[in-house]
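Handout, section 4.2: multi-component inputs.
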Amino acid sequence: MAGGVASGGSSSAETYKEARNFLLLPAWAVLVIFVLAPVMMMFVYSFLTKEFRGGVIWEFSFAAYDQFFCDRGLFGDEPCSFEWTYIGIFWRSIWQAGLATFFALLIGFPTAYFIATRPPHLRAIWVFLITIPYWVNLLIRTVSMKFLIRDTGPLNEFLLWVGIIESPLGIAYTNTAVQLGLFYSYLPFMVLPIYAAVERYNFALSEAAADLYASKWTTLRLVLLPAVKPGVIAGCILVFVPSLGSFLAPDLLGGARNFMIGSLIDEQFRGSAGNWPFGAAASMILLSMVLLLLMIFARQQSKAEGRG
Amino acid sequence: MPLNKDATAAIDVRNAVKRYGDFTALKTISLSIRDNEFFTLLGPSGCGKTTLLRMIAGFEDVTEGAIFLFGKEIENLPPNKRPINTVFQNYALFPHMTVTDNVAFGVQRLGKSRQEALRRAGEMLELVQLSQFAERKPAQLSGGQQQRVALARALAPSPKVLLLDEPLSALDLKLRQAMRFELKEIQRETGITFIFVTHDQEEALTMSDRIAVMSSGEVQQLGEAREIYEKPRNMFVADFIGETNLLEVFVDKIVEGRAMCHLGGGHALTCDAVEGVGEGAKVHMSIRPERLVLSETEAPENSLRGTVHDNIFVGTDIQSVIDLDDGPRMLVRTSNSDRGKKHLFERGATAYVTMEGGAARLLVD
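Output:
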């Protein structure tokens, strides 16, 4: 009898395992087809030889990485000295994306807090309002932004008319314009995760802090922010990562001097000047950097947790 | 109101009203809580006791009237400027901080050095016997331990008044009983005025110096635990605090502080007269089950005949259910001892229910 019960137990555990594996199949399929396969393809392509009209020749080569990191002079026959051009573009991209993330946080956090503290039946409406502009295609929104901020656009004309400024601000085709475009493109990705975190926040904690003589600012810094940190981190990642790879905003709002990684990679796969292996290599380097950043971050996070 | 009384009142609530739009949560409350007192606000949920507590803490503003802390009006002080701390119902411990940091939080906000705050936190954790858990996070503690951390955290800044919002309601029975004594002990040791909110009448009776019984936004009765239990003023208090028997009586005459009454069937009863109940009134009389005695023969006064419907064993006592010949069903509690058992009767037997002297109480309204 006892044996029967035991075998029954183990067989049901096996059935459970089989069912679980079967049900996980779609998730695995999505991961393999949409994440693993493209990354592997890019990885392979980055080590191939370029074909002049786009595409690749199946011949192993370090040329793409060499081009990225090494300056070999005008004729390409000198020994490798470090190439700063692409690193510079990367650095500028990180800086731009970082600033866009910072501004999105600055505006997004109070917005999310505001929505989360409305009566429950109004919250959904506010969230809906936030997402309305995003029903319009990103390209159209970015072009509209360009029209808004150009020297003869409504923003400058309004400010001139009111008399706040005497000559147009000249934001178009600057870093500021790019940051503004990135900020605008990805703001909801900051607001929504923070909103979700603040909505789950136990506001009794803020009351407890006030009860224990904490000012509003101290409460924010020592109690609210630590409690909603996962939401803030998620929001920052969701804004920073696509900003870093973005090419629409830099192309349309920034002009030639405000080239970002996204545009660099985009250019390699479009038009006749294309260099697929180089584009793939740049993508791989970008991916590694983002992963590295996230890993360092996760590491510190778990260290901070472990301290308690 | 004499001035010297004001000076010793830790909290003085004067004609405080709280309205939310059309809804009146508190209707003109006035009460004075003495320094060093263990004061309890007791009432069912929705009676306004928590609202009053939150008004004292500063989380709700006062619609009308005023609240004074040691003679000083505190209406315009935000919660973080009031020398009052709160033990919250679900503790509201800061989840990302250690127990020590939780307890040190308030002390540090008062401008004390980190070292001073940690020393004070250590003292407080010793007081609540949690020193060995100082470095843990709240989530790693049991409910009872979290409750003590909340207490230590609220006591650490040495508040003038400590507010406790149903702090024991989330604990299991044994722990709750142990914590009652501990809380009372800590209150005596620290000499801090405690204002305790609860819906549990037993909790209120065992711990409090004085109790304000509240219902529907009003104070129904304010007094010492014994007074509230033995001399309830009205139906609500008599019914809410402990178990009681209610008899509808007619007051015939009041002579020298004694009220001569009769039941609907004509049976005469006598008890102390109370303020607010005059001759000719039709009111309720409350008698606690443990103040009733069963006997075979009729006693000279306040004795009613009935039939034993059932005897229910409740551990310390035996509860007899008696159907009166001349009235409703009554509960009689007899102690489960050899002495008590002499007064028990079989089911179906006829017995007399006699009220002990001074046990019956007339209720206003």
